[in-house]
Amino acid sequence: MALIVQKYGGSSVGTTEKIRAIANKIKGYRDRGDDVVVVVSAMGGETDRLQGLADEIGSPLPREMDMLLSTGEQVTIALLTMGLSAAGVDACSFTGWQVPIRTDDAHGKARIDSIDAEHLKTELGRGRVVVVAGFQGVNEANDITTLGRGGSDTTAVALAASLKADECQIFTDVDGVYTTDPRVVPGARRLEKITFEEMLEMASLGSKVLQIRAVEFAGKYGVPLRVLSTFDDGPGTLISLEEDVEEPIISGIAFTKDEAQLTVLGVPDRPGIAYSLLGPIGEANIEVDMILQNVSGDPSSDYSATDFTFTVHRRDFDRAKGLLEQAASELGAREVAGNTSIAKVSLVGVGMRSHANVAARMFKTLSEENINIRMISTTEIKISIVIEAKYLELAVRALHETFDLDAEPEKVDSELTPLSEQD
Ligand SMILES: Nc1ncnc2c1ncn2[C@@H]1O[C@H](COP(=O)(O)OP(=O)(O)O)[C@@H](O)[C@H]1O
Ligand SMILES: N[C@@H](CC(=O)OP(=O)(O)O)C(=O)O
Hints:
Blueprint: E1 3-8, H1 16-31, E2 35-40, H2 46-57, H3 62-69, H4 71-86, E3 91-94, E4 101-103, E5 112-115, H5 118-125, E6 129-133, E7 136-138, E8 144-146, H6 152-163, E9 167-172, E10 193-195, H7 196-204, H8 212-221, E11 225-229, E12 237-240, E13 252-256, E14 259-268, H9 273-283, E15 288-293, E16 305-313, H10 317-331, E17 335-339, E18 342-348, H11 358-368, E19 375-379, E20 382-388, H12 392-402
Parallel strand pairs: 1-2, 1-9, 2-6, 3-6, 9-11, 10-12
Antiparallel strand pairs: 4-5, 7-8, 11-12, 13-18, 14-16, 14-17, 15-16, 18-20, 19-20
Helix pairs in contact: 1-4, 6-8, 7-8, 9-10, 11-12
The site of adenosine-5'-diphosphate (ADP) has 19 residues, from loops.
Pfam families: AA_kinase, ACT, ACT_9
Domain ACT: 262-341, 347-414
GO molecular function, one term: aspartate kinase activity
C-alpha cells in the first residue's frame, strides 16, 4: 500500500465528464489499497476567464485578485468529491486555507512556508480520499493567496513532501515529458526519465508541462515526481534525482515567445554603464534574462560607443522601455530600440558538460535554415538563442532533427567515443 499525491491539471478537469472519469480512475487506486491525496486545478480556461473579469472591472487589487482566482479550484474540488462519492469512494475536499497551506503574503506569487498536514492525515486514516484545491494558500493575516500560474503542481509537490508520500504524480493531457512540446513537433519523443536539473531548465526556459517552483521544491525535498497522462495508462516520465553514467547529450528543446528584447544603441563605453542601465530596471522589480554587450571597437580612441541589449518578460516590456529611455538619455546614448516579436529556443542536456561542439551543431543547423541568431547565452547544461518569432517552429523542428531527438537517445560514453571524434 502506497501513499500517492496525484495532481490533475485544468486540461484534465475541463468538463464534468472528465471529472467523472478521474473519479473512476482514483477509485482504481483506492481499490488497489493505495492512500490517495488529490490536488486539482480549476477547469481549463477558468483562471483566464476570472482574470478577464477582473480586467473588465479594472483596479486589480492583489488581495482581491487572489480571492477571485482561487474560486476556480473551489469549484473543481467540490465536483470531484461529489464524483468520487457517486463512484462509491469516501472523500472529502479542502481549500488551501482549510488544510492549512501557509504562505508568505506575496499575492499572486506566494511561496509556501509550511503545511499542517494533521487534518489530512486524520481523513486519510478514516479511509477517505482527500481532495485539495491547488494553487492557493493562506497568509498570516488569514487572507487567501495564490501561488502563480501553474501553481497547482507546487501544491501537489509540497503536500507530497509534507506527507512523505511515496510518489507525486502529475496527471496532464500528454503522457509524459517530451523532448519538446509534442504539439509543435509531432515527432517529439516521450522521455522515460529526466534529471531534476534538466527538468528545471526545461521548465524555466518555457516548457509549461511542470511549474518551475514545483520542480525546485521536488528537487530540494527529494520528492519522487512523475508526469503521466490522465486519459491513457502508461509509465509517464520520472523526474529523477540521479544522473545515469550515460546521459544523452541533449534531453530536450524548450522554447518561449514570452520575452521581448531591448537595445540601447550608442552608449558611451565606460565603467558603470551596465549598472546605470539595469539599476532602474532591477529597482522596478523587472527580471532581466539574457544580456549582451558588445566589446567596443577601438580601444585606442578616447571615446567609443557600445550597444547594450537584454531581454525581459513581454508583459514588462513597456515599463522597462520607459525606464531605459530615461536612463539612456541621462547617459547620452543614441537610441533605445525594442522588439517584441522574438522567441527563445534552448537546448537542454546534462550530457553537454562533456560535449564540446553542441553549440556549433546548433548554429550550423540554424544557418542552413537561414535563421538569424540575435542573442546567445550558455550554461554548462543549456544553450539558448534568441531568433525572430516567426522562425520558432522551423528552428525547433530542425534542431530536433539535427540532434536525433526522435530516435533513441544519443549517449555520452567518453570511453568508447572520445570527444575529439564526435562531430
Ligand atoms: N517538453 C514537453 N513535454 C510535454 N508537454 C509539453 C512540453 N513542453 C510543453 N508542453 C505542453 O504542456 C502541456 C501540459 O501543460 P498544461 O497545459 O499546463 O497542463 P495542465 O492543464 O494539466 O496543467 C502539454 O499539453 C504540452 O502542449
Ligand atoms: N488554475 C491555475 C493553477 C494551475 O496550476 O493550473 P493548470 O494545472 O491548469 O496549469 C492556473 O491556471 O494557473
